[in-house]
Design brief:
Blueprint (H helix, E strand, L loop, with lengths): L11 H10 L5 H27 L4 H14 L1 H6 L12 H8 L3 H13 L3 E5 L7 E5 L1 H22 L4 H31 L1
Antiparallel strand pairs: 1-2
Length: 193
């Protein structure tokens, strides 16, 4: 489901008019924000379509990529990991890495295991814990799917030059940092109340 439920974005002039009624409205901030949401929705739609064509959700794909990163050092570097986590990973580690609850991760792992993409096993170092690893079927799926996925990403980003892409990453990093700061402040305030 899209986050921005507007088919047509308001023109900057309309945002200027709205700022007369709502003095806290910063027209350029609103314009950038709306374009960011709209772009995110469109990009998500492209990747969602590719994943749906292969009967996999974003969440399940994310778990598979986290597991693949743990066994594929080259993939880890491509995905931006500083160091590779060796071997299978616990559901708790996967939940932390994905930024979801442990209950959500359990559901994702259950579905992936049902479809034969992952396997749970007692942790070799601590039998009280379970570890999760990709199966051969899961690895084959990723090896077949990823080239087309990476082509779709390249196609999406093809209108931008290398320099523009680096600028975009830097600018989005600033927005991400501000969002993280605002979220942390909100969580801290909620904890006090």
């Amino acid at each position: 489901m899209p986050y921005l439920l507007l088919k047509d974005l308001p023109r900057y002039e309309c945002l200027l008019d709205a700022a007369k009624e709502f003095p806290d409205l910063d027209p350029s901030a609103a314009e950038a924000f709306l374009h960011l949401l709209r772009t995110g929705d469109e990009v998500f739609g492209v990747t969602d379509g590719n994943l749906s064509d292969h009967n996999i959700s974003h969440g399940r794909f994310g778990v598979m990529m986290l597991l693949w990163r743990s066994v594929q050092p080259q993939a880890a570097k491509l995905l931006g990991a500083d160091e590779c986590v060796a071997g299978p990973r616990t559901p708790a580690e996967l939940a932390d890495a994905a930024g979801v609850t442990r209950a959500t991760m359990t559901g994702l792992i259950d579905t992936l295991e049902r479809d034969g993409f992952v396997k749970r096993a007692p942790d070799p170092d601590d039998r009280r814990m379970m570890s999760v690893r990709l199966t051969a079927k899961g690895e084959r799926f990723l090896e077949g799917f990823l080239p087309r996925h990476f082509q779709a990403i390249a196609s999406l980003m093809s209108p931008l030059t290398e320099t523009e892409r680096k600028t975009l990453v830097r600018l989005l990093g600033k927005v991400q940092q501000q969002a993280a700061t605002l979220n942390a402040g909100k969580k801290a305030a909620a904890a006090v109340n």
